Structures are given as C-alpha cells and as structure tokens.
Amino acid sequence: MNAFPEPGGGSLDGIRVVELGTSVAAPMATQILGDFGAEVIKVERVGRGDDSRQWAPPDWDGQSVTFLALNRNKRSLALDLKDPRGLAVLEELIRRSDVLVQNLRPGAVAALGLTPERIAELNPRLVYCELSGFGPTGPRAGQPAYDPLLQAYSGIVSITGEDEGEPARVPVSILDMGTGMWTALAVFEALRRRDRTGAGTHVELSLLQTALMWVSMPLLAVAAGNGLPARLGSGLAGVVPYGAFPTADGHVFVSAGNDDAWARLCSALDAEHLRSADGFATNRERVQHRADVTSALSAVTRDFTTAEVLKRLTENKVPCSPVHTLDQVLADEQVRAVGALTSVEHPEVPDFQVVNLPMTFAGAYPTAPTAPPVLGADSGAVLREIGLTPAQVAELADAGVVGLADTADPDPATPTGDAT
Amino acid sequence: MNAFPEPGGGSLDGIRVVELGTSVAAPMATQILGDFGAEVIKVERVGRGDDSRQWAPPDWDGQSVTFLALNRNKRSLALDLKDPRGLAVLEELIRRSDVLVQNLRPGAVAALGLTPERIAELNPRLVYCELSGFGPTGPRAGQPAYDPLLQAYSGIVSITGEDEGEPARVPVSILDMGTGMWTALAVFEALRRRDRTGAGTHVELSLLQTALMWVSMPLLAVAAGNGLPARLGSGLAGVVPYGAFPTADGHVFVSAGNDDAWARLCSALDAEHLRSADGFATNRERVQHRADVTSALSAVTRDFTTAEVLKRLTENKVPCSPVHTLDQVLADEQVRAVGALTSVEHPEVPDFQVVNLPMTFAGAYPTAPTAPPVLGADSGAVLREIGLTPAQVAELADAGVVGLADTADPDPATPTGDAT
Q: What was the ipTM of the complex prediction?
C-alpha cells in the first residue's frame, strides 16, 4: 500500500523518561515521548497525585478529562519526595533513566537537593528538562505562572477578540501544550547530541518563550515599525470579507481572498447589488470599509441556513467552512476518516477515546495508546525494577513513603525489567 | 556555570533537508530543523518564490515580515519544476538528501511525477513529509485549506470570543505553526527509526489533525457527555473572577483561583463590600453569577490605573498580569532577560531580529541564525554541489529553468560541497 516499508515501533523504545510533572506542560511533553515508544514513569505525590486528577468537571465517568487527555502511555509511581527514603528512590530512578522532565514550582526540585549539579553528578548522560513560566533568568524568573496569565503577559490576549469588545484569551492551552511540544523536540535534539558525545544536558524552557514564538510574526511586525494590530474578531487584516458570518441557524466561515472570489460570493448568494456597491468593489476598498462590508454581507447570510450557504459557496468555488461546534466535530466524516480519535481500553471509562498524535508513518499512527494510570498503579513494579525487595516495598508503603494503587498487584511472582 | 558540558552545534549537522514549501507550515518545520543544524535547501518558483515573500504589509524595510519570520537558516534555490530539466535537478537533490518537506496543493507534487513510490525509488532512506489541510484520506482529502478555515472546521472558532458577540479566531497561526512543530518532531522520530533500520518513511500530517490535538481536552469533554463549552472571552469555566478587567488606561489580567485569593483581591482594591455581597462569597456562587461579578469588579478596576492595580494585587499575592500590547512586550524587561529576541545581520534590513527557538541547552540557544535568503541566492552553489558545471548552470539560468539572485556570485572560483 505504501511505498516505504511498514513502520516498526516508536524510535524511543528503550528510552526511560521520568516525569516530575503536574497539570499540562510536562505531562504533554512526556505523553508525546511515550507515544513514540519511551517508557514514561510519572512520579506523583502520594494520596493526591498530579493536580489535574482533581480538575473536574469536566469529567468522564468520574475521571478528570484533563488528566485523561494528557497521561496515556505512562506508568504511575506515587512517592513522597520530602521523605529521604522517597528522595533516594527518585535518585536511583534518575541514575537509571535517560530523560527527566519537571515543571514543579520554580526552585522546588532544587530545594529537594536536586540541583542541576547534583543531577549531573547522579547521571551525566541525563537529558534534564526544566520547564517554568517566565524562564531561568530575569526579574520574574522565580514567579509561578499559568497559561492564561502568560497569554496576557505576552500580548496574545491584547490581539484576541473584537476591537469594540473586551480582549479575549485563546481558549486552548497553546502555551502549556506548546511548551510540551517544544520539550519533546528538545529531548530528541538532546538525545541525538548524546548519541554523538555521550553527554547529557540541561534544557530550560518556559511558557513565556513559547508565547513569544507564537506571536513572532505580529511581534516582528511591530518591531519593524508597523502599527499595533487591531483585534479583528474572526477577521484578517488584509482581506475583507474573511471570517465568521451569521446564518439563520449558526455561522459560516468565508474567505474571499481576491476580487474574483468576491464576485463569485456575491453571485452565489444572489447579492449582486453588493458586488460593486460604493466602496465594495476592490479588496483595498473593502478593507477600508470593513464594518460596512461585514454588516451588509451578514444581512445577506442571515437569510440562509448554514447548509444552504455552504452549498452555494462550494458550488461557486468560494473557500468556506462550517463553524463547527465540538459535537459536530466529533461526528464529522472527515474527522472520522483521518482516524484522529482512537478508542483505548480503560478500566473505569468504558467509551474512552484519545486524540492521536497528528501524524502517520507509512500510513500508521505512532504506537497504540494505553490508558492513563491509576495513581500509584506501577509503584510496586517500578521499585522492584530498581532493586527493592517486596519486603522493602511493603515497608515504604506502610510508612506512607510510597503509594500503592488499590488495583495494583501487591506482590507479583515475577519482577520484570532490570531488577538486580 | 552549568553542570552539564557546553553544548556543541545542533544535532542535525550533516542532515540535508529539501523544502518544497510555501506560506507557513512547511517553512516553520524546516526553520526548526535548520535551527538544530540541518542544511535546508528551500526550492522556490523562479521569479516569485514562496507566496509569503509577497505578504506585505506588514513589511520590514520592504521585506515581508511573514517571510522574514519563517525562513532563517536556509538556502534558496529558484527552480522551474514544470521544466524537465528543473525536475531532474530536484530529483538529484532528493537522491542526495535526508528529508523532504512539502506543503504544496494536495496532489501537486505527485502530478510532477513525484509520487511516494517514485520518491522511495529515488531515495529509500528519505524521510518524506507531506503536509495537507484535511489529511490524506476522507471526503475532503484533496481540498486546499487555510489556518483560519480549519480553525472554524475544527471547533476552535466556536469557542473563541465572547458568548454575546460573534465567534472569533485565534489570531496566531496555531495550526500552520503547530503543524510545522509536529513535522519537526516527526522528522526526528523518523531519523531515529532510520538510524536503526536504514529505511526512510512517508510521514503525513495535516492542519486538521493538528487542530484536533489543540482541542483534545474540550473535545474529549464533549465526547464524555459534558455540554458544549461556552465562549467566555478571557474567562475560565470553573473560576470567577479570572480574566482581563478594564482599568483607567488599559486592562489587567486577574486570577482569583480560590476564596482566599478573592478576599485578598477585594481587600487590595478597597472593595471589601464585594467580598461577601449576595452571591459573591464562594467561587461556586461567583461562577453562577459570572456576569454580575465581572461587572461589579470591572467597575472597581476602572477607577485605578493598570500600574496601580498590578502594584496592589502583587503586594497582596493575587496572581495577575498586565495585558501587554506587543510594543510593551518588546520593551519588557523579562522578555529581554530571557534573550528570546536575537539580532541577525540582514543585507537589506539593518535592525533585523528573530525570535529564538524557545529553549536553551546548558544555557545556550540552538545555533546562531543567519538571515532569510534572497530568492535564488544559492541556486548556483547548490547546482554545482550536485555536479553541474558553471556552463550548465548558466545554460539553465538563460533558459529560465533556474533563477539566480542578482546578489549571487554567478561564477565563483571554488565550488564547495560534494560536487563531482
């Protein structure tokens, strides 16, 4: 079927990643690495685990949707790092791993004694990724930060929404998830460098730097002396009409990128009177009369159903799209066809699905996902793999240093992995 | 200074990437690869080049800002692929390269004869990345698509903006740039697989799949049976107050994540009367009275300057941020401190700067950037590297099959690279 050979497993098979993460950014990073075949050990607080386990609603059969969306292909180790015995376990894991990704409060990991120096001493081959809000230096280096606040700080909020209304935010976590993606890229880069030199490294990333990359085009435009961009709602600065227009039963997104498309648009909607109306004839004029064009065209589109507008525009080769709501997205034929959503077996969520990584290799998505783990699901197994006896595991569990999941087999007959 | 050794060059040193790209997604992908040390050869149309070269305003000393922001660390080869001699040059480049990234119209590259089968035949070790709007299968597979239209199609527009107003779009190219980031990740993954197996692969990515990953959390929430999310402007579903509030001279972004923070917020702004006002006392109540709380708090913040609100909230440990405009972002001390913006020498843009990749390795950003190339700047050099004589280059240039930049040395004495 495909010209290139069938893909094997992910290339990170054999790479062990320790996540000391919470919320979105670090979990996103390690989920990507897990999708490419890495073994990901998620170290969580005993009792509560990752903050995002509590972020419900929205929930899915009682589980936090945020946690479910960001933690497939991982093992969970519940560990009290404030106890020296817990810290010793983490240090042993660091010695035996290839990658450490953490996004705890700035300074929190170093306060445990795990400074970059100590980490390099434990494992000079380690790729140590440290994620923060504002970056490693500067007056705000130590401050915690959240995706929406950094959207405001970095100028994204100032350009989102309608100019006449209040500024808005981007309602998906482009800073947290984006930083997770940059972290995964940094890990691949650092592993390739290590292949060559044998040495690990310390990678630092931040929501602020991720944000500046997102706004790089408008930011450089302002640096070049262009004026501040207006908030244009769904519109574009240089093309009118372009954006979401109301219909009798929803909205359609229309793009008339040149005067020919504008002519076809007017004709398709029986609105020939608009085509050469005063100030409407050329794109340059329409940009100057943005509000008038938008209001006149909206008056036309409001008389049709969404389906009718889409049919007429498509027939007339005017680029357009439904403004789908998320339930429509789930039901959409094209979304189904690309196979982006995959069912995953989950013990407590019968209909569980995840969104695949957005890429295929010779037609196949990266490795098949496993369900996000119950807190502490793999505590016992991981401890035995790093050399603890079942008795030692039980002792740590009794002392509350390690959390074992109710569902975990407390004493399996056959330890696996590199237990010594 | 850093516990890990000084970083050397990027890990993709020695990897040759051919970009058959236009606009944003493919150029973003290969710019990332170039930042990590790959040699990127950008193949462009003779005469016009990448569409984005014409996307001005905004411009920087006459150059398109979009082009400038997405094409550092690249060489430009202007080539007419409709001419068999031009196609033969591209095929020879494919034979000698490691990666090909293309985002031309669906089917356009195959129409040149470069089907995946032919590409695999030319170079079975090649990582061939094909980017599209809607993905490789399904009823819309062949349709062109643009970032804003796909934001509408994938539900992003439906959740952006104010509920009382029209839906908005995300004003940065999260689908195009995001697909570029996923492509760079896919290339690293495929190169690691090739290190193991010797075989290249065909990677397919799309704006649609990238979009579904961005909305994965709200999408899974709807799949789980939670209702459709409202458009909340700058707000958050589960926390009130949270978002941008007006001041006497701008906006501030405020987050009162719990009732203690709410108490501190009211006290900081001398608004004790709000704290326990009817329906305002607990977060649960405030979520139910979102509009009332927002309007009451806005009336308070409007009486202060932005600086005064930030000072009072910071002193009272209420998480907050200025809603920076982009000129303020450029001037911001923290932005300067993390060194995200770097000056790059450009022959026609004296003050040119770029936004660095958002990560450092042992304290250093990836390789230093070089300026985006003039159209055809490297045509002669690249052709000689793949074995053409200066006479053959001149002949192709005379025939219009190859475009040489005015600034390029037409016949340098010493060919470089792997010329045979």
A: 0.95
